[in-house]
Amino acid sequence: MFKPPAPHISEITQKLRKEYKDFSHYNKKNPLDELVFILCSVKRSEKVYLNAYRTFKRAFPKYKMLADTPVRKVSQVIAWGGLQNQKAMAVKAIIKTLIKKFGKPTLAPLKKMSDEECEQFLSSLPGVGKKAARCVMLYSLERQVFPVDTHCWRIANRVGWNTKTHNSENCTAKNMDLLQELIPPPMRFSLHVNMISHGRKICTARSPKCNACVITCYCSKIGL
Ligand code: SF4
After folding, report:
1. Dihedral (C-alpha) 120, 121, 122, 126: value to the nearest 10 degrees?
2. Which of 9, 152, 153, 158 best tests ligand 1's pocket when mutated (most atoms within 8 Å of CB)?
3. Whose CA is closest to atom 2 on ligand 1?
4. Residue 223 falls inside a structural domain
5. Rounded CA gap, 137 and 203, in Å?
6. What's the total number of domains in the chain?
7. CA 64 to ligand 1 center in whole angstroms
């Protein structure tokens, strides 16, 4: 069924693209690199997770090295990235699953899968949710999906693209689907990366700088 796009979606996409120039936030072309990068970023600031990922890649330049490395050692390598035990266990379990499924640690076979198959497979991996799955698809598999991170969710609600289905501030899997449906596929990459830039610089969680905002005339400022 056809769903109308979100209000002012074209204008907002264009204004944000002009302002932030589709900066891709250091995301990776290789889908497995991207998945590890996203896991490193969970609940950490940009500076911290960029360094955690660099440290990890220096210690494990080949993913197959992880198969026989104890969780404790992997955890030590990414220790200062935070949540190291959960992340180390997830990465090791992912590598094990990929070797079992594809014969080696790779996500390359996903290039031949449909969007639905990709999302389903990625979301079935240990520690991988819908947002991480869609990040891998968007950045590394060139799929037109819309991952909803904290910045995208906050801005979408403030501008008035109402996809909240509950009173909580959390974005559920259903909310992510509803929001993605409101955004025409060709706009999804640009809008995602530029909403992250906008959320970090202007539409911050506390004290958003509405006076300096390039989309202020399209924004309903819900909740402010
Ligand atoms: S006008 Fe304010 S609330 Fe709306 S997007 Fe801009 S900074 Fe955010």
Report:
1. 110
2. 158
3. 210
4. no
5. 26
6. 2
7. 45
Encode the chain (224 residues) as per-residue pLDDT tens digits. Answer: 556 677 799 999 999 999 999 998 999 999 999 999 998 888 888 888 898 899 899 999 999 888 888 888 888 887 766 677 888 889 999 999 999 999 999 999 999 999 999 999 999 999 899 999 999 999 999 999 999 999 999 999 999 997 777 666 788 999 999 999 999 999 999 999 999 999 999 999 999 999 999 999 999 999 99
Judge if pTM exceeds 0.85.
yes
* Residue span of the structural domain in which 188 resides: 9-24+147-218
Give me the count of residues in the chain.
224
Structure tokens at 2: 């056809």
Q: Give me 221's structure tokens.
A: 């400022």
Distance 209 CA to ligand 1 centre (A): 7
Is 126 in the same domain as 184?
no
224 is a domain residue: no
Q: What tokens does 141 get?
A: 């598999």
